[in-house]
Amino acid sequence: MNVLFVMDTFKDRVPPTSIMDQRKATDVFHEWAEKGKDIGMEKGHAASVDVMLNLLLDNVSMPFSAVDIGCGNGWVVRQLSSHEHCTNASGVDGAVAMIEKANGIDPNGSYHHGQLPDWKPEQPVDLVHSMECLYYLHDPLNFLQIIHDDWMRAEGKLVIGMDHYEENPASHDWPKSLNVHMTTLSIQAWLQGMRDAGFENVSAIQTGAKEDWAGTLVLSGTKPQRPQ
Fold first, then answer.
1. Which of 32, 74, 178, 215 could form a disulfide with 208 if both were Cys (CB 3.0 to 4.6 A apart)?
2. pLDDT tens-place string over residues 192-210
3. Of 20, 3, 40, 12, which is closest to residue 178 (Cα–Cα)?
């Protein structure tokens, strides 16, 4: 993750009062989109997302459908759509202004305003991508089960990226700084959560690490061909 992007992001930090007064993450991202910060998010996450997309699309040679969770202004959806084997790529985001941005940039694209964990694609897809989204949920490990059961086709692949996790201390003050809920889990907890949800070939890497920054945690796994 771009460190300058992190510093700029937290210029908007607000003093927390209590859990009851925490803001919704979707409201924060709505405001960021209105301020044009979606461009900074795109640039700041680009290097990590390149790694994620390489994992997601490795050895893909058949037609596929895909969905990006927390799609922001739709930049990853547009990258997925440009792949020669992509038949359909869509995105979902809980921030209204982000979806408005996505539709404005790509009027013919497929972008949905929806709240997780309730929203789901109309049809299961082959590939699921998500960058900097799942830890805002109160029960992200249960949502992994929902993705596995309801979002994905057999032999589908999931790739998740996040900068807020236990082994990255530089991210630990983010919940207080932004006054939003974040679920802080260890790498092993995420890996076990994916396995418990039913994913196979589960793995984790950290990319972009530097001094005082543990890098983006990238998790991947595949849905078995048959129920376990």
1. 215
2. 999 999 999 999 999 999 9
3. 12
- Collapse the DSSP code of 199 into the 3-class scheme (helix H, G, I; strand E, B; otherwise coil) and give the result: coil
Nearest CA to 44 out of 1, 7, 98 is that of 1
- Give, to the nearest 10 degrees, the angle between helix 25-34 and helix 37-57: 110
Scan for tokens 């510093």, then name that residue. 7
- 200-207 and 86-93 strand pairing: unpaired
Report how far residue 195's alpha carbon sits from residue 190's, in angstroms, rounded to the nearest whole number. 9
- Find the range with the poorest average confidence among 10-24, 42-56, 164-178, 207-221: 10-24
Q: How far apart, in Å, are the Cα atoms of 216 and each of 150, 198, 207, 219?
A: 27, 23, 5, 10
With tokens 């109160």, the residue in question is 138
Per the document, the length of the chain is: 228
Find all residues with CB under 8 Å of 95, minimum gap 6, and list them: 26, 27, 29, 30, 32, 33, 72
